[in-house]
C-alpha cells in the first residue's frame, strides 16, 4: 500500500506540474507597460513554488515508500527538529523577503506612483451590468455627475446635466474603451450601484469599482488590438455577462475616432 | 486558574432519563458532539448536491435538470438553471460548507465530544450553554434552508455577502429581499451558537483538567480546539454585530454600508454616508480567522492521530506544533486585508497586509515539515485514519502553495477573483479540512459509537477521494492562470469559451468524487447497526479517550477520577515495555 | 303540433341570436386624435451596443433612444391615450400581450394592457436578457431569460405605468402600461390614435408620454365619433 501511495503521489505531482511547465493554459499575451514585471514576479514565484511543491510531495512519497508497513527499530529525524524548524524559517523567510521586496516595487508602479500628468483621462461608469466610458470632449472638461439625473433608457448613464452644466454638453459617452497605443491612460472608476471590477487580463491589472468612491487606475497599452474588460466582483445576476471591449488603436486612428465621436 | 493539587470540581451529573433528555435536549457533551456531527453530515451532503448542480451548469449551461423546476419554478424554469439561481446555489453552497460543515464538524463536533474526555473531565464546564449552542446552531440551519423556499429564492451575494449587493434589499437582484434577510438572521444565530461553544471550550480547558493533566500534557487535538475557541471568540464577536448592521441597512434605512447617491436600476436610493468597504473590513476581520478556525482543528487532529500510526511522537513534540498553531492563530488577525488588495483601500495597505500574510507561511511550513519528518523512520501503519492524515499533508501542501501567489499584491492584481483563488481555498478547506474530518471519523468513530468501521471501504473511500480531489481542484489553478473569472454563472466571454472543456472535465471529476462519498455514508450507516463491536483501545493509542469504554459512559469515566502521569504521545518510549504508554500509566518514567 | 313547436323554437332561436349579436356589439363610437408637441424635444442618442456584438451588428447605423419619438409634423409616437374617468362599457381582455426582446430592444417599446391581462415575454436573441419591471404599486420582480428559454407568463393586478429595463443591456428600456379600461389607444409613427367601441357619454381622456408627462381633456362621444388632440410642450433637455 505504501508503494502504491508513493507512486500515486509522484504521478499526481508530475501530472499537476506538466500543464504549468508546458503553459498548456496560460496567461494571455501581455499588452501593458507594467505587465512584464507582473509576469516576471509570477514566473519567479512559480519556479520557487514549483521546486517546493515537487520536493515536498516527492519527500512525502519517498518516506511513505520507505517506512510504510515498516516494522522494527524506529528512527527519529537525524539532528532532531531544530535544524528542520530553522530550515523552514530561513527558507520561507528568504523567499518572503525577496518576493516582497521586488513585488512591492511592481505593485507600487501600478497603484502607488502617480499617473503621468499628461495621461489621457477617461471616466468610467460601472453599473449592473455594463461599463460606459466618458471622454471630456473638445472643451477638455468633464461635466459633473448628478446621480439623480441618471437615466439609462435615455442614454444618460453618467447622470450628466447638459441643460445646466455647459461642460457636460460635449462629453462623449461610449460603450467601448477606445484608447491610443503607447499613451499613458488614467481611468477614474465610478460605480453607481454595486461593487464592480475593471479587469483586463492582457493588461495585467484589476481594480474594484466601489460606489461612493472615485478610484484612479493608470496604465499604458503597448499593443494595438481588441480585448475584453470583464467584471470580477459579484454584482448581481448578470455579473457573468458584464463586460466591455478595450480597443487600442494607433494614435492617428484614435484621433480620427475621437473626431468622429465629437461630430455626432 | 485553580490549584492543580486539589481534586478538580466535578459536576456530579446524574444519568439522563427518558428519550428526550438522552437523545434530543441532552446536556451530555458526547451527545451534543454527535448532534453537531450529524448536522454537519446532513449539511455536507446538501452542500455537495448544490456543488453538483453548479458544476453541471458550468459545464453544460443549457442543460435541463429533470425535476429542478419543481424545487424552484422561478430559478430553473424547465429545469434549466438561470444565472440568478446559479448564484443562489453558489451562495448557499459556500455558506453551508463554511459555517455548517467546516466550523461544525472539526471544532464543535469532535471538539465537544473529545475535549472534556481528553482533559479527563466529566463534561463541559457549562452543559446548558452547550446544549443551547447546538440548538441555536440547528435553528440557524433551518432559517438558512428556509431561503430555498421563499418566493424569490436564496440570496445571490455569495457567502461573503458584500455590500452593496447585499445591503439594499430586493432591488439589487432576485433573492436579495427575503432570502438575504434569512441568510443574515441565520448567520447571526450561528454566531451566538459559536460564541457559547467557544466559552465552553476555553473554560473547560482551563478549569476542568483532571489531576496531573497539565497544559503541557493535553493532546494536540485539545490544544488545537482550545486555540480555535480563542480565535472564534473574537471572530464571531465581530461577525455578529456586522450581520446586525447589515440587517439594519436592509430594513431600517440605515447607511452603514450604503453610500450617498446610489442609483440601482434607475432608482435613486435614499441612503447616505455609508461605506461598502466597511462591510469588507468587518467581514474579513472575521473571515480570515474563520478559515483558520476551519483548518486548525484539522492540524490538531492530524497531529493527534498520526503518532498512533507512526508509533512515535511528532517531530518537534508538543512545543513546536503548539507554537505553530498559536502563531498562526495570532497572525490570522493581522492579515484580513489580503482579501482586499484590489478593493479600493489605500494601496500602501496592500504591502502592510502582504507581509504578515507571507509570514503566516512560516508556521504552516514548519508544521508541515514536522509532519513530514515524523514519517521518517516510523513504523507507518496504513489505516483509513492514517491515510487521510497523510493525504492531509499532501493536499495542504498543494493548497498552501497557491496561497503564496495570492499573498503577493503584484500577482494578486492578476489572479484576484479568478479560479486560482477557488483552487486555493478549496484545497485548504474543502479538501484538507475535510480530510481532517474523515481522519477523525475513522479514528474516533469506534470510540463514539462502540463499533469498528469497515477498513476496506474506508481505504477505498480514501483512494477514490484523494485522486478525485486532485482531478477537481488542480485544473482550477490552470483556469485561474488563464484569467478565468470566478462566480460566473456561465462562460460567454470570448476568452472564456475555449476553457469550457476544462470545466467539463472538472464537473465529471466532481460528480465521480461525490459519488465516492456515498461509500463513506454507507460505511457509517452500516457500522452504526452492524459494525463489529469496538474494544476500548483499538489503535493502541495513549490519550485519555482510550482509557474508557467504547462508547464511554455518561460521565465519561464511570465515576473514576483519572490521574495523569504521562504526556499524550509516549509511543516508542525508551524503556517502555510496549511501544506505547497510556497517559494514566503511573509506573513509567519518561526519559525526556 | 310538432311543426308549431319547431317554428316557435326557430323563432326563439333567431330572436335570441339577434339579441346576442346586438348585445355583443355595443352602440359604440370612436375617439380619434393626434398627439403632437411644440418647441424643441431632446435629441435622441444613438445606442452603443458594443458589449453585445450580435446586437451591435444588427443595427447599423445604431438605433436611437426612444424616450421621445418625434415624427414629421412634430408628432409623438408611443403616446398612450386612454379614458381615465367616467369609463363605461369596458370589456375584459384575455388575448395575451406579447413583449419581444429582439436585437437587444423591447418590441413594442410601450406595451399597453389591462389589469389581469396575460403578458408573455419572449427572448428572441441568442444572448440572455433579464426583465426587471420597476413598479411602485404592483409587486416588483426580476427574472433572467437565457436564450431558448420558454416565454415568461405574467400579469399585473393593479393599474400602473411600470418602467421596465434590462440590466444586462442597460439601454433597453420600455413600459408596461397597465390600465383598468379597455378604451385606450397608442399613437403610431404618425402620432394618431384610435379608441374604439366607446359608448356615448362624457369622459376624461388622458394622454401619457413617458418623457413629457400627462395631459387630460374632456371628450363627449355621441352618435359615432369624437376627436381629441393633445399638444405637449417639449423642452430640449
Keywords:
heterotrimer; A: about 260 residues; alpha+beta; Immunoglobulin-like; 2 domains; 5-stranded mixed sheet; 3-stranded mixed sheet; about 35% helix; elongated; B: about 600 residues; mainly alpha; Cytochrome C Oxidase, Chain A; 3 domains; two-stranded antiparallel ribbon; globular; disordered N terminus
Summarize the structure.
The complex is a heterotrimer of chains A (264), B (592) and C (237). With 592 residues, chain B is mainly α.
Q: Can you tell me the CATH class of chain C?
A: Mainly Beta
Tell me the number of helical segments of chain B per DSSP (H or I, 4 or more residues long).
16
How do the helices and strands follow one another from N- to C-terminus of chain B?
HHHHHHHHEEHHHHHHHH
Rough outline of chain C: globular
Question: What is the CATH-assigned architecture of the largest domain in chain B?
Answer: Up-down Bundle
Reported for the largest beta sheet of chain B, the result is: 2 strands, antiparallel
Task: List the chains of the largest interface with their residue counts.
Answer: A-B, 105 and 109 residues
H/E series of chain C, N to C? HEHEEEEEEEEEEEEEEEEEE
Enter the CATH topology name of the largest domain in chain B.
Answer: Cytochrome C Oxidase, Chain A
Summed over residues and divided by their number, the pLDDT of chain B gives a mean of: 95
Question: What class, by secondary structure content of chain C?
Answer: mainly beta
**Oligomeric composition of the shown chains:** heterotrimer
Silhouette of chain B = globular
Number of strands of chain B: 2
Task: Give the CA-CA distance, first to last residue of chain B.
Answer: 27 Å
Determine the structural class of chain B based on helices, strands and strand pairing: mainly alpha
Model regions low in confidence, pLDDT < 50 over at least 5 residues of chain B: 1-6
